[in-house]
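Preliminary data (for renewal application), adenosine-5'-diphosphate complex.
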Amino acid sequence: MNDQSSIGSEAVDQESTRNKSTMVLQAQGLSKVFIQGDRRLEILDDLDLQLQAGESVAIMGSSGVGKSTLLHLLGGLDNPSAGQVCLAGHNLSERNERQRGELRNRHLGFIYQFHHLLPEFSALENVSMPLLIRGNQIAAITAVATELLQQVGLGERLHHKPSELSGGERQRAAVARAMVGKPNCIIADEPTGNLDEATAERVFDVLLELRARHNTALLYATHDHKLAARADRVLELTHKSLRQITL
Ligand SMILES: Nc1ncnc2c1ncn2[C@@H]1O[C@H](COP(=O)(O)OP(=O)(O)O)[C@@H](O)[C@H]1O
Ligand SMILES: [Mg+2]
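Predicted structure:
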């Protein structure tokens, strides 16, 4: 599959999405119920969210309230019980699994609390992965991935495997991997939750620097007030719904 593949004029769409003040991510009436045996766990109820191009939004809320569940729905990794998610103007519920995968690959970058790098591959190979999946040319991929690893301060660690990197270095590699496809939006689930305070701040600095450079929207869940305060808007998830708060 090449770069201009099956979802038509995506490349053009992506460019125009980035340049205008458009909606990158939009959730409407989003609900999520988990059924476990005879128990119904209502996690999210009729929730709305809008993320503009280039905007950063932090999501706070106590553990178990549903932040990860919400981010999974917004990233098309799980299906809502009701409501819909539009990613760069595409309604995810109207797409099949393969199309959702393509939309994710093209428009989103993900960062998790635990780096989720593939253990048997080097930093360079891990960061190259999203572009390999797109079917880009190897030489071009290597050049872009190397440049990004340099930008996150890992220019001297290109061929290290995850087990040969420190915790902060792994998360910086994960940041580079999330950014390599120049997505419209990064979804990050407690991206620095596993790091000490100083390392967390350094990783976060790198993330904010890269997103500013590429005008990438950023939606992140965090427990950390200091990190949340760096977002354009802070939302708190309580009682299955979001409300804007001031820190
Ligand atoms: N696949 C699942 N099946 C059943 N319950 C789940 C599932 N995923 C999450 N939950 C429950 O949903 C609630 C919210 O979880 P989560 O979104 O991970 O919270 P947070 O990220 O805010 O800590 C928790 O009570 C959790 O146990
Ligand atoms: Mg979580």
